[in-house]
Amino acid sequence: MNKERILAGLDAGHVTTKAVIMRERETLGYSTVPTGFDVVAAAQKALDSASDNAGISRAELGGIVATGIFGDMTKVPLNVTQTIPEYVADAQGALFLNENSRSVIDIGGNIHKAIRYDQNGSVLDVTQNDKCADGLGIFYSTMSKALGLSEQEMSELALKSTKNLSVAVQCALSAESDALDLMCQGEDIADVADAISRFIVERVADMCTYMSLTKEVVVAGGLAKSQAVIKHLPSLINQDVSVLNLPEYVGAIGAVISYEEGK
Amino acid sequence: MNEYATVNEQLDWTKATVIAAGLDSGAVSSKAVILLDGKPYASSHIRTSKPKESAFSAINAAFSKTSLTLENIHYLVATGRGRTQVPFARETITEIACGAAGAVHIWGQSVRTVLDAGGESCKVIHCTEKGRATAFLWNDKCAAGIGRYMETFADLVNKEVTEIGDIALQSDEFPKLSDFCAVYAQSEALDLMRSKVPLEQVIAAYHYGMARRIATLVGRLGVKKDFVVIGGLAKNPGIIHRLESILKVSRLAPKPEWDPALTAALGAALFADASHRRQ
Predict the structure, then answer these.
(1) Strand locations in chain A, DSSP E?
(2) pLDDT at residue A260, as a whole number
(3) pLDDT in tens, A153-174
(4) CB-closest option in A135, A149, A189 to B183
(5) Are A107 and A223 in contact (CB under 8 A)?
(6) pLDDT at A59
(7) Nearest-CA neighbor of B148 among B102, B182, B173, B179?
(8) Which residues of chain A make contact with B189, given a CB cutoff of 8 A?
(9) CB contact under 8 A, A174 and B142
(10) What is the pLDDT of residue A30?
């Protein structure tokens, strides 16, 4: 393959669509847009703004490699060069971003999953959330809106919490009810924000009991950017974790990397 | 959510004998209604962030087009889930009692069943011609949040929460979604999108699922006529139309002069008015 070839990685997820522009193993630009209803339009928009961000024109793109739950839907309309299964893209992306990593926990908008892989990024084992734990990312966004905060503000506040409150153990919908109840009882917003963050990690930790994670464990997905969420992860899964650089782009980057593997 | 404040310019509060206010501190939105000698004068509807602060914001929004201040209010009753978080309330009364009282005031003495479909919870209330609640049923936990999930759902399909209810009626043929849980239904709706089901069908399917969920609750207590719907979801034609056809009963149409979301706040204001007169 031509080393100067510029490729776009596209990760069409339930909630957001991510695009990266890469030359060889260097990331030139990236962009995230809401997926909404029109998956193809969102993908187009993500690719355009990632190209702008990289300072290249669409004509310079040597190809598009797609992944994500809606990846296949973009294949024909966008003339996608190749599609990569999500687990493969996640494993390859995580290994690329941290070469010592052997497991990745991906906390996305609608689905969270954990993947174990070898030193080549080949997938060894996979687990995904059960249905009652769907939508943790959506839940996190909804809660920040309900509390009148940005996601960043909610995370910062949660880190200041001094009280151990808790919301429902199983369902995001009940957790939201419980959180609103706590607010109505006059509890401090920082403590409620912390309870929300811990609830998310408990769900993720539940999932992780179905599969052993080998070191090093890295975290990806949009929620990896919440320090308040990450704070609780090591104690609840009994393992050290590190957050990948550009955590929400692990799938998109992994798609490009997988393509470069010459498959 | 539509935040607003209204005032009836024809009335002059300085001439009123009794200035009574009701504040409904909901889990999702906070509402205030001010009555001058029992007549509606000012109202407001805002999003709840922190219940205590939002209580102040709601009453101040209701004051915004008037020269009223808290000192001028003779009696204020707080209701709603956050009613204990309203520092300036003289009294707190449940949203069940306030919803029934408000509904009978708006629609008249023929009302016997009130469905309060709000952001967080759904309640069915039976009441007398005087607006006194005689029985009620609260949603079980798995049916919480139908109202606020409408907003989340609207965001996911990139539409306004005020328009999805109409879009839901554009399609009579649609796949069936989970009618047990709003989270399941949303997840399934996302899957339908992926399988290229037309947008209006996805929206219709979601509304139908939620309407069935509410219908189950209403059915457990039973509907006695006349039937009215209050709370924010009363403004969603997609939910209401399906609900009416599942229950085989029509609700009394909303009154143009009253936002159904303000009903419990109105009920609280009516109680405030009565309490002040009793003093």
Answers:
(1) 6-12, 16-23, 26-34, 61-67, 82-83, 103-107, 112-117, 123-128, 217-220, 241-243
(2) 63
(3) 999 999 999 998 888 777 777 8
(4) A135
(5) yes
(6) 87
(7) B182
(8) none
(9) yes
(10) 96
Give the residue ranges of chain A where pLDDT is below 70.
1-3, 260-263
Which residues of B fall within a CB distance of 8 Å from A138? 152, 156, 186
Picking from B49, B186, B194, the nearest residue to A135 by CB comes out as: B186
* Residue A145 CB partners (closer than 8 Å, separation 6+): none
Task: Give pLDDT, residue A171.
Answer: 79
- What is the residue type of B27? A
Give B157-184 as a DSSP string: TT--HHHHHHHGGG-S------SS-HHH
Taken in order A235, A239, A245, A247, the sign of the CA dihedral is negative
Q: What is the ipTM of this complex?
A: 0.71
Name residue B3's beta-bridge partners: none
pLDDT value, residue A1: 45
Classify the C-alpha dihedral A26-A29-A33-A37 as positive or negative.
Answer: negative
Residue holding tokens 């006695």?
A: B224
Q: pLDDT value at position B91?
A: 96
Got the DSSP string for A147-215?
Answer: TT--HHHHHHHHTT--S-----SS-HHHHHHHHHHHHHTT--HHHHHHHHHHHHHHHHHHHHTTSPPPS
Q: Closest to B157 (Cβ–Cβ): which among A14, A37, A189?
A: A37
Tokens of A175: 């957790």
Q: Which segments of chain B have a pLDDT < 70? A: none
Can you tell me the distance from the alpha carbon of B254 to that of A201, in angstroms, rounded to the nearest whole number? 44
| pTM of the full structure | 0.79
**Is B81 close to A180, i.e. CB distance below 8 A?**
yes
pLDDT of residue B145: 83
Q: Which amino acid is at A45?
A: K
Q: What is the pLDDT of residue A263?
A: 47
What are the chain A neighbours of B213 within 8 Å (beta carbons)?
none
